[in-house]
Design goal:
Elements: H1 2-20, H2 25-38, E1 47-50, E2 53-56, H3 58-67, E3 72-77, E4 89-96, E5 104-110, H4 123-139, H5 159-172, H6 181-191, H7 196-207, H8 217-233, H9 235-243
Length: about 250
């Protein structure tokens, strides 16, 4: 088992270098710990490397919970703390690791001030995801912040520049060691033998934009995590969903 995990770490490290450049010694040491202790996979989209730090993803946490035999997850909207008119939502999530356990609690909040401009209107779903992520991290002892918990720190005056930079990164690859999201998407397509044209149509529909070039990094990362989870959990259903984006063949008279 130990040898298998060492091999898995080498795979993770090699793919990390391809996607994000050469990580620091501390980053590689952290990656080794995450691989050995939690069996997190870079190829599966369990981890993201941003600004020199590792972040776990929602799909990575769910896969970990499944491997550990998680008994259930409940979420409850905190109505007293939420404000529908202002688009502010607060959720409480509880993770039950085993039958009869008291559960590990996590709270998540989201409003237009702490989410990307590209996902305004989806604050309720983001708040629930953040709550689940925090509860899962508590339950399984993961000190890493999750990607979905990252808020928007940009001021209104700087949001346009941030969006432009994110768009450039998402379409052209990586700068300064940032993830090459296009490479990750291509890797997923090859791994699960998916139709690139149909995936392209799906991502545009998922992100609500005509093309991938108009989507910021956070939303592309969310789609990659979503696609990874779908491919793992039920590839046949994913294929059916992708086929729904196929253009009907014209029948010539």
């Amino acid at each position: 088992m130990k040898r298998v995990k060492v091999v898995t770490f080498r795979v993770n490290a090699n793919l990390a270098r391809q996607l994000w450049g050469e990580p620091s010694r501390i980053a590689l040491r952290t990656l080794r710990d995450l691989t050995v202790k939690y069996s997190l996979s870079v190829a599966a989209g369990d981890l993201q490397f941003l600004d020199g730090r590792w972040y776990v993803t929602h799909s990575g946490l769910l896969q970990l919970a499944s491997r550990k035999g998680c008994r259930g997850i409940t979420t409850i909207l905190q109505e007293r703390l939420s404000d529908v008119a202002a688009g502010r939502w607060v959720f409480k999530a509880t993770v039950y690791k085993s039958p009869g356990s008291k559960g590990f609690v996590g709270y998540g909040d989201a409003d237009p001030s702490n989410v990307s401009l590209m996902v305004h209107g989806a604050e309720m779903r983001i708040a629930e995801t953040r709550a689940v992520n925090r509860a899962l991290r508590k339950a399984y002892g993961i000190g890493l912040c999750s990607v979905e918990e990252l808020g928007s720190s940009s001021s209104n005056s700087g949001q346009t520049r941030t969006h432009e930079a994110s768009t450039k990164h998402s379409s052209n690859g990586s700068n300064n060691g940032q993830p090459r999201l296009r490479d990750q998407l291509c890797l997923l397509i090859r791994q699960h033998n998916l139709d690139p044209a149909l995936v392209k149509a799906y991502v545009a529909d998922f992100c609500g934009t005509p093309s991938l070039k108009e989507v910021n990094r956070e939303l592309v990362q969310s789609f990659i995590s979503h696609l990874t989870a779908c491919a793992k959990e039920n590839r046949d259903m994913l294929i059916c969903r992708l086929n729904s984006y196929a253009q009907p063949t014209e029948v010539k008279p």
